[in-house]
């Protein structure tokens, strides 16, 4: 039995370091010096915080576009006999009265594209790895920094530059191609403008940020683990980030060449994707999905890592099936590259479609392995319902719904009926929002005290959780019903029968937005006047809880030595915690041999 | 030798040490060997991404070759295999010299190190010069251009524009890599004049050398696909 006394490590971090009470957050002598320090920092923690701020800014922009999309859909667009148009919400919202139906639809298309492109390329893909991953991966393996700190800062500036190009495209009027940029529409629409060019260039440039981050993480995990930490002593979040990094490195170059060819197409009309002069638009779709399907696992794997961490800490039990979870992350990363064809079921032959359908079903296996292991971890655990755990439990519901509704889409016969309907929209959002965003919020709440050294208000955070959970399900569950009844996606209007469904969905989106504003308020008030956080508020066993909150600049005063596994809750008292608060379970009687 | 004092110390210690001897590894690494290993893994991963980037182009080549075999057969006849071969030889020579320069650094032959790096840079520039003045410009001026710019009056096949699209895109992206490589090699040369590379520290040479070899290898694949097979 290993017991880490609370006094030892805690006093050591305090003694003689009062001038560094705020760790890496300690400001410099002047405001300008602090700003310069942050702008030129190579500290992974500061870069992680800057990424966190950036991705949530993008989340706000994409969320606003989503609210606009839902607002337009509150009422179907109708033209009366005398030519008056009713039900056009967006033009009215922006005070543009004189707008034909086609122009109104165009505006809707732009908002829909902005929502998709911003959320996918600027929020979900970099989201967890670049912010929480950057901050916690080195801490969790006991390293001082990532392998290439300057490359890390460089990747942040690349991301920033790419995002700015995307925002330039928005300011110039937005694009209407959908986030998939399908050719030949994307090469001919708005031909006199440079918007598509800037947006695609932004995506191309941001790809490098992903590659550099992934490359950095792989080398960090291989070379910088603390002494004594074998591969199977790593926290599962690290495994998940490692698997993610593999996909980032192997898939992102393909979107690089795809967007590069698309840029050439727009600049020089090279015609590789242009059917008018013999090019092949389906080739674009193959290229695009060869990246963009693996990328949904870039989005979801880190989320799964966070869930693995939360579920053990808040049920105070060793994780069930450590190796199964670790290897299922790698399995998902591997299968990710074999399933892109299910986005092109209608444009490929029956044999190829059947093969891709079968391969797609394979993804369900490692995913289910994870879900079953998480549920088994809960069994007989002493579960506490703080906000991170509430989000974790919500993840188990919403992500499972998202995963299971993927199976009818992978089945050729049902997909013929369901493809390009709201069923797909609902499935995607249950996986991405119900999976990635919910897990992001779980991780953010769990690690918030560690990152900023401040406690957040548990009551209001729970209120925010209830609003987000109710709002999310209200917005998207109804869309499964809409989809099965035949409502096609990407349309600005619909038949009268669907009105009530769309209205429920739109009201849900408002509740969801309210929930996020509650969370924003909770976080801002925590930063402004939150109480000083304990170094290990939840009693975690991974290495990040051994250092101060917020961590000191070099993460640890001494290189940590690994003496226990990341989830040995039944044999180890958590570092910096009182053994009275975290009593070890009694040993079972009568088993001594 | 465990203890160094005035009697047993080598006379070398009296000299002011050179830049490569003063190199200190980043403080988040345990040793400079670990750091070097990490950098090499990182570069190999980056090379993987380069291969995948070009694999998109090879894929496009395969698809269009299958769709328009005649246009591609015609297309390769328009290219002069002699210039292609010369460029291949130039790149192979440059790969040899960059590898030699690493060996020079390991053996502390500072003069040869600079000469070999210089030859490598000259090769890179010669490659670009041949590519540009003897291949791109003459072809472009007679209308052998990509996509909708295509304006060659004697085209035997209507899909030759796609062939030229593939040709210019693939060799153009490769040429960009050569240009970046020339820049990196010049940076190495500048640093080698500051004496930063020697037996115990030649990380930059090794890393850029790896990059330079992948640029070479990609050309080795592009050359037969575009110039040789009909």
Number of helices of chain B: 6
Largest interface: A-B, 40 and 40 residues
Structural class of chain B: mainly alpha
Q: What percent of the residues of chain B sit in helical stretches (DSSP H or I)?
A: over 70%
What do you see in this structure?
- The complex is a heterodimer of chains A (593) and B (230).
- Chain A is 64% helix and 1% strand.
- Chain A contains 18 helices and 4 strands.
- The longest helix of chain A has 40 residues.
- The two termini of chain A are 18 Å apart.
- The N terminus of chain A is likely disordered.
- By secondary structure, chain B is mainly α.
- In chain B, helix 5 packs antiparallel against helix 6.
- The termini of chain B are far apart.
- The mean pLDDT of chain B is 90.
Concise structural overview:
The complex is a heterodimer of chains A (593) and B (230). By secondary structure, chain A is mainly α.
Keywords:
heterodimer, A: 593 residues, mainly alpha, two-stranded parallel sheet, two-stranded antiparallel ribbon, disordered N terminus, B: 230 residues, 6 helices
Describe the protein's topology.
The complex is a heterodimer of chains A (593) and B (230).
Chain A: E1 2-3, H1 6-14, H2 31-39, H3 44-72, E2 78-79, E3 85-86, H4 89-93, H5 101-140, H6 149-171, H7 185-188, H8 195-223, H9 236-268, H10 281-315, H11 322-335, H12 350-378, H13 387-404, H14 406-410, H15 412-418, H16 422-452, H17 458-484, H18 499-529, E4 572-573
Helix pairs in contact in A: 3-5, 3-6, 3-18, 5-8, 5-9, 5-10, 5-16, 6-8, 8-9, 9-10, 9-11, 10-11, 10-12, 10-13, 10-16, 11-12, 12-13, 13-16, 13-17, 16-17, 17-18
Chain B: H1 32-67, H2 69-78, H3 81-106, H4 110-141, H5 160-193, H6 203-228
């Amino acid at each position: 039995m290993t017991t880490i006394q609370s006094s030892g490590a805690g006093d050591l971090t305090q003694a003689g370091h009062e001038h560094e009470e705020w760790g890496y957050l300690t400001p410099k002598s002047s405001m300008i010096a602090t700003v310069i320090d942050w702008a030129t920092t190579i500290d992974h923690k500061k870069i992680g915080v800057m990424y966190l701020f950036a991705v949530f800014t993008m989340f706000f922009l994409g969320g606003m576009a989503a609210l606009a999309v839902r607002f337009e859909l509150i009422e179907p667009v109708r033209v009366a006999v005398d030519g008056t148009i009713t039900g056009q919400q967006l033009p009215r919202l922006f005070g543009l009265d004189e707008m034909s139906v086609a122009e109104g639809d165009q505006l809707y298309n732009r908002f829909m594209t902005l929502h998709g492109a911003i959320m996918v390329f600027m929020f979900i893909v970099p989201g967890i790895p670049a912010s929480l991953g950057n901050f916690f991966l080195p801490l969790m393996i006991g390293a001082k920094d990532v392998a290439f700190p300057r490359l890390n800062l460089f990747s942040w500036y690349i991301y920033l530059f790419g995002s700015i190009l995307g925002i330039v495209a928005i300011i110039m009027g937005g694009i209407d191609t959908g986030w998939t940029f399908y050719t030949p529409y994307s090469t001919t629409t708005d031909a006199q403008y440079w918007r598509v060019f800037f947006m695609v260039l932004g995506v191309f440039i941001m790809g490098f940020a992903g590659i550099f981050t992934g490359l950095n993480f792989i080398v960090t995990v291989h070379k910088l683990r603390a002494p004594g930490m074998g591969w199977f002593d790593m926290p599962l979040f690290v495994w998940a980030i490692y698997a993610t990094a593999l996909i980032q490195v192997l898939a992102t170059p393909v979107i690089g060449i795809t967007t590069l060819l698309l840029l050439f197409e727009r600049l020089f009309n090279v015609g590789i994707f242009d059917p008018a002069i013999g090019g092949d638009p389906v080739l674009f779709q193959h290229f695009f999905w060869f990246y963009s399907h693996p990328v949904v696992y870039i989005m979801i794997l880190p989320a799964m890592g966070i869930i693995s961490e939360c579920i053990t800490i808040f049920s105070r039990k060793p994780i069930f099936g450590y190796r199964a979870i670790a290897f299922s992350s790698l399995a998902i990363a591997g299968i990710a590259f074999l399933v892109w064809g299910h986005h092109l079921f209608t444009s490929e032959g029956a044999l190829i479609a059947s093969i891709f359908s079968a391969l797609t079903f394979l993804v369900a296996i490692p995913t289910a392995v994870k879900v079953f292991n998480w549920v088994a971890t809960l069994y007989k655990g002493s579960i506490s319902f703080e906000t991170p755990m509430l989000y974790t439990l919500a993840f188990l519901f919403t992500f499972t719904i998202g995963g299971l509704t993927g199976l009818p889409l992978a089945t050729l016969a049902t997909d013929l009926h369901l493809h390009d309907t709201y069923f797909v929209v609902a499935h995607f959002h249950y996986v991405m929002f119900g999976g990635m965003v919910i897990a992001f919020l779980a991780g953010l709440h769990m690690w918030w005290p560690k990152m900023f050294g401040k406690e957040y208000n548990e009551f209001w955070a729970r209120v925010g959780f209830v609003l987000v959970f109710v709002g999310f399900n209200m917005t998207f569950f109804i869309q499964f019903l809409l989809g099965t009844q035949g409502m096609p996606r990407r349309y600005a209007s619909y038949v009268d029968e669907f009105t009530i469904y769309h209205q429920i969905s739109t009201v849900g989106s408002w509740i969801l937005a309210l929930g996020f504003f509650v969370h924003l308020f909770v976080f801002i008030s925590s930063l402004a006047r939150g109480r000083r956080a304990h170094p290990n508020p939840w009693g975690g066993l991974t290495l990040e809880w051994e250092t101060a909150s917020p961590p000191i600049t070099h993460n640890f005063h001494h290189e940590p030595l690994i003496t226990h596994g990341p989830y040995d809750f039944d044999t180890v008292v958590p570092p910096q915690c009182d053994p009275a608060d975290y009593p070890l379970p009694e040993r079972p009687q009568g088993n001594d041999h | 030798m465990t203890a160094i004092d005035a009697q047993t110390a080598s006379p070398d210690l009296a000299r002011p040490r050179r830049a490569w001897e003063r190199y200190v590894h980043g403080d988040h690494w345990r040793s400079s060997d670990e750091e070097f290993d990490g950098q090499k893994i990182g570069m190999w991963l980056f090379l993987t991404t380069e291969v995948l980037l070009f694999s998109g182009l090879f894929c496009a080549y395969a698809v269009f070759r299958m769709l328009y075999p005649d246009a591609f057969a015609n297309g390769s006849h328009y290219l002069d295999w002699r210039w292609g071969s010369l460029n291949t030889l130039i790149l192979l020579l440059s790969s040899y010299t960059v590898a030699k320069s690493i060996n020079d650094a390991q053996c502390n032959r500072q003069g040869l190190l600079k000469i070999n790096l210089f030859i490598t840079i000259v090769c890179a520039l010669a490659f670009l010069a041949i590519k540009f003045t003897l291949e791109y410009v003459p072809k472009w001026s007679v209308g052998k251009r990509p996509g909708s710019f295509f304006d060659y009056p004697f085209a035997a096949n209507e899909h030759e524009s796609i062939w030229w699209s593939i040709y210019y895109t693939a060799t153009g992206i490769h040429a960009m890599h050569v240009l970046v490589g020339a820049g990196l090699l010049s940076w190495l040369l500048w640093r080698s004049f500051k004496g930063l590379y020697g037996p115990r520290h030649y990380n930059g040479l090794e890393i850029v050398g790896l990059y330079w070899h992948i640029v070479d290898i990609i050309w080795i694949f592009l050359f037969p696909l575009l110039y040789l097979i009909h």
